[in-house]
Each structure stands twice: as structure tokens, then as C-alpha cells.
Amino acid sequence: MKRFSHFVLALALVSTTPAVALAGPCTDGISKLQVAFDQRLDKAAANGPSGTETTDAKMHHQPTQESVAEAEEQLGELSPDTAERFTQAMQRARDADEAHNEAQCLSALHDARAILKP
Known about the structure:
Layout: H1 2-22, H2 27-47, H3 55-58, H4 65-74, H5 80-98, H6 102-116
């Protein structure tokens, strides 16, 4: 019986290891900054004028971050330059995170945070 419980314990430990190993050094920071950006878009959408419903929305397709940002840009609530610079900085952060390059990732996150500040 002890052998079986050791086997189950070892299996549980091994099954959780790949998820931890896949996370980069900045994964948590990237997620938090993405949430901050999404909240800014949500706030702008709630307080600003409404746009026309798109064909995708009428077909019950869920909006993507990019489509929401594009709609905000069209309504003048988020400049195209700001959205593009933020998207590029976040992509640099994700690429560096995937490569486990913490210094580059932190630098890109710093750039993205600076872009989000009003």
C-alpha cells in the first residue's frame, strides 16, 4: 500500500511540474499588465460614446483585445499610436518571457507600463 501511495504522490508531482516549467520569468507581470490594459479599455468603453454593432457581434462572436482596441481607436478614445506601441511592447515582453530572458522582458514591461500611464 505504501508503494502505491508513493507512486500516486510522485505522479502528482510530475504532472504539475511541466506547467511550472513552461512559465517564464515575467508571466505574472505580463498577465497583470494585460488586465490593466483591458480594464482601461472597459472603462473607456463604458464612459465614451457607443459605436455601431459589427457583423461579428451580430453573429455572436466574442471580441478580441485587438478588436476592442480598434473600436476604441475609431471612437477616438485610445489613440492608434498608443494602442500600437502598447501592443508592440507587450509582444516584446511575451517573446522575451518565452525565451526566459528576464532582463528584456522586464524592460518591455516597463515600456508598456509607461505607455499606459495617462
